[in-house]
Amino acid sequence: MKENIRKISVCILVGLLTILQPMHAYAATTWKVTYYKAITIPLKNDTDTITHFGGMCITGTTAYCFKTASGDTASRLYKITKIDDYPTMSIVKTWNSSRLGHANGLAYYSNHLYVATFKGVSEIQVAKINPSSGEIVTEYKSSRRIYTIAHFKGSNFIVDEGNVTINGKIHRKFSVATFNDSSKTVSYGNCFYILVDSYYNNGFVHFQDIEYDGGQFYLPIWNGTEKHKNIVLEIGLGSSVVNGKVYPIEYKNVINGAEGTKFEIEAMACDKYGDAYFSIDRKNKKLNAIYWCDMTFKMIPMSRTY
Q: Cα–Cα distance between 170 and 185 in angstroms, integer?
């Protein structure tokens, strides 16, 4: 059980410490970013159209992330080594097609990447990729749409199935899923819900990603109207899912950019230390970057240059 009161510090790679506030169980806490420097993934050239962040995941301290073009007409997979220290970025592969869709979610398991395409139910929902070569090993279809994905435990994943209405209130539905390489299909196990009605009715309608780490489940949501506002809902999921349960929200974490400018969380991933990273889309696509948030709640000033 987490302490009811804890402290948050938000640091940014190539950045300085920002703001610190107390955190109370089931209460709002602000992780406010005030200094815009981070792990920047540069455009290949001035005419590069693959600018929008997609899914991101971390295994140990090696990160993988996607960028896509407008209309999902192309996608590119990046690898970042030593993301917790002195990161080095390289391109794994570029797809000049819509094969991977929006590459909206990304998970790592057993030396492979699993990409949620965010396509319609008649199309490929998840693609399994070799992270060294970028080769697509298997593609899985499903009669249920998968919005994004996170690794859970063993061969089990958690997938986001979108909004459902229960007793007149909007909930977000998530299911445990496994992937069958022989049949190229998805099998679904227990499901659970998070009540999001009040957030949805206050403009937080863009459900961006999911992450599972150390028994905690995270759900970042972006307010597309006030484009600098994001929240990350956190629940204590534990190591198993109670089928049909509506899990209570333990914390509502607020992450804001500068007033009046676009600062959109696209994806979230945790490293082996439990620290969280967020890929952020900005109005100026050249400023799109990955930001680090110290989830151990300690003040760690960052003054390195990357």
A: 28
CA dist 75 → 4, 67, 128, 175, 176 (Å): 42, 6, 15, 27, 27
Name the residue among 136, 174, 132, 131 with its Cα closest to residue 156.
Answer: 174
Question: Which pLDDT tens digit goes with each residue over 87-108?
Answer: 889 999 999 999 999 999 999 9
Q: Widest CA span of the chain, in angstroms?
A: 52
Q: What tens digit of pLDDT does each residue of 271-300 get?
A: 888 888 889 998 888 888 888 875 543 323
Q: What tens digit of pLDDT does each residue of 113-160 get? A: 999 999 999 899 999 999 999 999 999 999 999 999 999 999 999 999
For 5-294, CATH gives 2.120.10
Angle at 224 between CA 219 and CA 225, to 5 degrees: 135
Instruction: Quote the tokens at residue 174.
Output: 């998530």
Whole-model pTM: value is: 0.86
Q: How far apart are CA 119 and CA 101, in angstroms?
A: 6
Q: Which of 118, 138, 213, 236 is nearest to 178 (CA)?
A: 138
